[in-house]
Amino acid sequence: MVSTPAAKAALRLAAVVVGLAAASCSYQYDDGLPPLGQREAAAQASAEAAQASASASAAGEAAQRRERAARSALRAPLDQILSGYALRGWADTVLPDEGGTSVASGSGAVWPDGARFTLRAQGPPGTATLRFACRGTTTARIIATVEGAPAVDLAFDCNRPWARTVALAGSGAVDIAFVAGSTPSNVAYRLVRP
Questions:
Q1: Tens digit of pLDDT for each residue in 96-119?
Q2: pTM greater than 0.90
Q3: Cβ contact 90:188 at 8 Å
Q4: pLDDT tens digit string along 155-173?
Q5: CA dihedral 93, 94, 97, 99 (to 10 degrees)
Q6: Which helix (H) or strand (E) is 110 found in, with range?
Q7: pLDDT (tens digit, 9 = 90+) per residue, 67-85?
Q8: Would you call 61 helix, strand, or coil by DSSP?
Q9: Helix crossing, 39-75 with 84-94: angle to 10°?
Q10: Which side of the chain, N or C, has fewer Cβ within a 10 Å radius?
Q11: Of the candidates 151, 131, 133, 135, which has an alpha carbon nearest to the alpha carbon of residue 143?
């Protein structure tokens, strides 16, 4: 045992040095994760980023489907009646959503049996442009009424877009009817506000 004062002082000094050395050393472990208090926020941000990426991917795939359908519709024979994505692709190609605010649109098919394909568009009151087209080998007819009063009544050639100005009254509703010419055809309309 050490009993001299110098030996005791040296022993105390050694203990202080060892204590200080132990205090300055710390164990660090990095698991690659955020600190414990921040893990929930990081997980939520990661999930939101994954959802946004999936939504963008789904939107991109849907846009590609519409584009393929539009190309397919443009190559289809004019006497072939379109439906589904091909019909929507043709309608969006011939009457694109541009040049104003599109408030309503629709598309379908008509046959020469005299039956009408009727749609109702709703927009804010005021002046609007009714854009329309048919896809076929002859003509079609459009009859648009605003609150029961005739606004447009026109036989028109297929395979090019047409437009007429209409005044939407108080309710802003316009009834649109298409009638086929001598052959079946696809029809479409878009109601646009300036």
A1: 988 778 999 999 999 998 889 999
A2: no
A3: yes
A4: 999 999 999 999 998 888 9
A5: 130
A6: strand 101-110
A7: 776 676 677 888 899 999 9
A8: helix
A9: 80
A10: N
A11: 151
Identify residue 15 by its one-letter amino acid code. Answer: A
Q: Which two tokens stand for residue 146?
A: 């605003």
Element (H, E) at 16: helix 5-24
For the record, the structure tokens of 54 come out as 């999936």
Q: Are strands 126-135 and 162-168 parallel, antiparallel or unpaired?
A: antiparallel
What are 50's two structure tokens? 């994954």
Token pair recorded at residue 78: 């004019």
The Cα 71–Cα 34 span in angstroms is 49
- Checking 35-41 for CB contacts under 8 A at 24+ apart, the result is none
Both tokens of 30, joined, read: 């990095």
Tell me which H or E stretch contains 23. helix 5-24
